[in-house]
Amino acid sequence: MDLRGVNKVFDVPGRPPYVAIEDFNLHLAEGEFVCLLGPSGCGKTTVMNMLAGFIEPSSGSILLDGEAVCRPGPDRGVIFQSHDALFPWLTAQENVEFGLKMRGIPAKVRSETAQRFLALVGLANEGRKFIRELSGGMQQRVQIARVLANEPRILLMDEPFAALDAQTRRVLQDQLVDIWQRTQTTICFITHDIGEAVFLADRVATMRAGPASGIKEVVEIDMPRPRERISDQASVYHRRIEDVISAEVQAALA
C-alpha cells in the first residue's frame, strides 16, 4: 500500500481551511508491521481514516496494488480503540460471524470460521458469551477475530490497547505479534506509546506536529523476534524515537 503526496484539508466555517496532512508519503510492504507515532493532534487518525477509505485525501493518492483507495472495502479491516463497534445483543461468535453473514457465507462455514478465529485470539471457549460478559481485553480480541475472519489484506489499528490496563495491554501485544506472524497480514498500528511501537513494529513512522503534518522520520527496528521489552537495543530505539517526538512537541509549543 502506498501513500503518495497525500494532503488533507478540512473546511472550517468562518475560518481559513485547516491543513491537517501535507505531502504525506509512506509505503507499507506486504506482511509488514508498521507503527504510526506522533504528538497528539498530529493527524494520525486522519491518516488512518484515509487508509480505511472513510474519508478521501484532498490531493495525492492512496494506492493498494496500484488501485486507488476511495471507499471502505473488505481488503482493509479496521480495529478501533473503543469496544462500541461490537454488537452487545450478539454473542462473541455471532459478532465474528456478522461480516461473513453480510457477505452471504453459508451458516456452517460461518460457524467454523468464527470458531477458528476465536481460537486464534485465545477465546475458543468464550464464543457463546455476550459482549457484556467479557472483559475489555476479551472484547478487543473479539474485534480482532471479527476483522481477521474476513481475511483483509491490511489490518488498520487505531490505538486498540490504549484504554486497557498495563498487564492486559502486554498480553494483547504478545498475542497480536503471534497472530501477525501466523497470518502474515500487513498491519498499520497507531500508538502514542514509544515502548509499544518498538516492541511491535518492523518500522516506526514518526509524524511531524500538526497542523500540516507529514512523515518526520521512519525508524527501522532491527531487533530479532521474539523481542524483550527491556533491553539495551530497545532502549537505544526508544531514546532515538523519543528525541524525534520531543523535538516535534517543543516545536509545536514554540
3D architecture notes:
37% of the residues lie in helices and 23% in strands. The chain is an alpha/beta fold and 254 residues long. It folds into two domains: 174 residues, Rossmann fold (3-Layer(aba) Sandwich), CATH 3.40.50.300; 67 residues. The longest helix is centred in the C-terminal third of the chain and has 22 residues. It is globular and about 55 Å long. The two termini are 35 Å apart.
List the helices and strands and how they pair.
Layout: E1 2-10, E2 18-27, E3 33-37, H1 44-52, E4 59-64, E5 67-68, E6 76-79, H2 92-102, H3 107-120, H4 136-149, E7 154-158, H5 166-183, E8 186-191, H6 194-200, E9 203-207, E10 215-220, H7 232-253
Parallel strand pairs: 3-8, 3-9, 6-7, 7-8
Antiparallel strand pairs: 1-2, 1-4, 4-5, 9-10
Helix pairs in contact: 2-3, 2-4, 3-4, 6-7
Helix percentage range: 25-40%
> What is the CATH T-level topology of the largest domain?
Rossmann fold
Strand order of the largest sheet: 6-7-8-3-9-10
Number of strands: 10
Order of helices and strands: EEEHEEEHHHEHEHEEH
Arithmetic mean pLDDT = 94
Main sheet overview: 6 strands, mixed
CATH superfamily of the largest domain: P-loop containing nucleotide triphosphate hydrolases
Number of domains: 2
For the CA atoms, what is the radius of gyration? 19 Å
> Residue ranges: pLDDT <50 for 5 or more in a row?
none
Number of helices: 7
Beta-strand residue fraction: 15-25%
User: Which structural class is indicated by helix and strand composition?
Assistant: alpha/beta
Second-tier CATH architecture of the largest domain: 3-Layer(aba) Sandwich
So what's the overall shape? globular
